[in-house]
Design goal:
The chain has nine helices and eight strands. The protein is of the alpha/beta class. Strands 7-6-5-4-3-2-1-8 form an eight-stranded parallel beta sheet.
Length: 216
């Protein structure tokens, strides 16, 4: 068995031992890796992959997606407004919706391209200046704006917790916020903390290094 396939299966086994009630989707973070490196996972039947650059994603996945209709590609990085049209063409999920201008642009281009995408609103739980995400006090009006005004399909919230050893608290906070909006899905947890994230209700975990190895 291929090494990255073995690693994926080990992660699936680890998740299975938790006996959590929710279905957990593993988004294999394939950004920067060539398709030849990723291909064994596709051949193995894995369908969820994460990227963070629009042009790289188009180059890597556009033709493959035409052949494999089961693939689901996730935008896990910050999305620039000038890349929205191309992003809607290639992505099925966007995990980083966090401002009104972006919501406006996404809604307009979805209509123009006749394509509906699933969205996570990224929340900046630690109020970190260098991180994207909507502040907690703006979340409720922004969520209503996206759903009611712009008719975007918001399926859940996303967080990249601060690196301050309080990860569990951030996961719990996001779960509480998600519940307050009656949302079903949560995008949280990466290679180092996906087990904890799942214990707090994560339904999409974003795992790169533990599957593909270190990036150069």
């Amino acid at each position: 068995m291929n090494t990255i396939v073995e690693r994926l299966e080990k992660i699936k086994f680890n998740i299975g031992t938790l006996k959590q009630p929710q279905k957990v989707n593993i988004v294999a973070i394939s950004k920067t890796f060539s398709y030849s490196h990723i291909k064994p996972l596709v051949d193995h039947g894995h369908t969820h992959f994460g990227e963070n650059k629009v042009q790289e994603t188009l180059n890597k996945w556009e033709e493959i997606k035409k052949e494999n209709k089961n693939l689901r590609i996730h935008m896990v990085g910050k999305l620039q407004n000038n890349k929205v049209k191309d992003a809607i063409k290639i992505f099925d999920y966007i995990h980083s919706l966090d401002n009104q201008k972006l919501a406006d642009n996404l809604a307009k281009n979805q209509i123009n391209l006749n394509k509906s995408i699933k969205y996570f609103i990224q929340v900046n739980l630690g109020n970190e200046l260098q991180k994207s995400g909507i502040p907690i006090h703006e979340l409720d009006p922004f969520y209503n704006y996206c759903c009611v005004e712009k008719k975007l399909n918001i399926i859940g919230l996303m967080v990249i917790p601060p690196n301050d050893k309080n990860t569990k608290n951030y996961f719990k906070s996001l779960k509480d916020l998600n519940n307050s909006l009656a949302l079903k899905d949560i995008s949280m947890g990466m290679s180092a903390d996906y087990i904890e994230a799942i214990k707090y209700g994560a339904t999409y975990v974003r795992i790169g290094t533990s599957i593909f190895g270190e990036r150069t």
